[in-house]
Amino acid sequence: MVSLGLSRHIRSLIRTGSGLMIAALLLLMTMPFVHAQAAPEITIVSPKANDKITGKDINVTMDMKNVDNACKWVGLPDKDGQGHIHAMLDGMSMAQLTNFYCGTNSFTISGLGVKPGPHTLMVDIATNTHEDMDKTMKMVKFDYQPASPQAVPAAKKPASAPTAKINNLKDGAVLGPKFNLDIAADNFTPSADLEGKLNLEGYGHFHVFVDTQTHRLSVPRVQVLFSCDRVRNE
Questions:
Q1: Per-residue pLDDT tens for 173-219?
Q2: 169 and 184 in contact (C-beta within 8 Å)?
Q3: Nearest to residue 101, comparing CAs of 58, 141, 138, 130?
Q4: Summary mean pLDDT of the chain
Q5: Separation between Cα atoms, residue 216 and residue 207, nearest integer Å
Q6: Distance between CA atoms of residues 85 and 138, nearest Å
Q7: I need a labelling partner for 41 at 20 to 30 A (CA). Which of 150, 176, 222, 229 fits?
Q8: What does the pLDDT look like over 125-169, one tens digit per residue?
Q9: Nearest CA to 179 among 159, 208, 203, 150?
Q10: What are the CA-CA distances from residue 7 to residues 16, 20, 21, 125, 160 (Å)?
Q11: Dist CA 127 CA 146 (whole Å)
Q12: Is 17 in a helix, a strand, or coil?
């Protein structure tokens, strides 16, 4: 009798345990499955290793995966799956940054000031706040042999310190999500083509920040595209 009672008790526990397991499995099946965010990837499609470039500029095409590089994200808080391209020529610092690129997988680096011969292009994906994702870094060596190398313009020693002024906005202006900036520069010539090249007196580019009290490039709330005398917030 005792043996029979124990056997019934064990069968009851098994049935109860099975029911709990089935209920748990059914609950898991009804829950939404969350996929882990795949890591961003970037590949340089062109130029290829040791390509000879004979045109005046350097055309670059990328293959990007697992990243939304829309320009509207640039400068906003970092978010997984968002970012843009940083491209550097013959170095890996801000001094060699030819620009950052968004909303596209292809761009052109001006050959202005690039000497004929071997060069190294480095690209990576950066977060919205311009932090380089080091693990995405790719590089390629190429031979730049243009028919007519483009010399840099002559340096222009300014009469006084360079200044910049926003012409088309007043303090307190109400703006939409997109707006244009018309910037006037005194004693200074902005040039996108010279960005990332050796410093040249009298030339440079603009950095535009929104909603930040700091001028450190790595922490803007919103930073828009460099390098023109007319800058558009994307």
A1: 898 878 888 888 888 899 999 999 999 999 988 888 777 655 544 44
A2: no
A3: 130
A4: 82
A5: 10
A6: 11
A7: 222
A8: 999 999 999 999 999 999 999 999 999 999 999 889 999 889 998
A9: 208
A10: 14, 20, 21, 65, 99
A11: 34
A12: helix
Whose tokens are 């007519």? That residue is: 148
How far is the C-alpha of 165 from the C-alpha of 114, rounded, in Å? 31
Domain 41-144: CATH superfamily, name plus number: Immunoglobulins (2.60.40.10)
Q: Which two tokens stand for residue 109?
A: 């680096």
Indicate the DSSP class of residue 61: E
The C-alpha atoms of residue 121 and residue 87 are separated, in whole angstroms, by 7
107 - beta bridge partners? 60
- The pTM for the full model equals 0.75
Kindly list the domain boundaries of the chain, sorted by start residue: 1-34, 41-144
Tell the burial category of 197 from Cβ atoms under 10 Å away from its Cβ (0-12, 13-18, 19+). Answer: buried
CA 114 to chain centre: 23
User: Going by C-beta distance under 8 Å and a sequence separation of 6 or more, which residues neighbour residue 159?
Assistant: 187
Side-chain-facing half-sphere of 66: CA atoms under 13 Å: 11
Contact at 8 Å (CB) between 60 and 46?
yes
| Burial class of residue 150 in the structure, from the number of CB atoms within 10 Å of its CB (0-12 exposed, 13-18 middle, 19+ buried) | middle
The residue assigned the tokens 């029979």 is 4
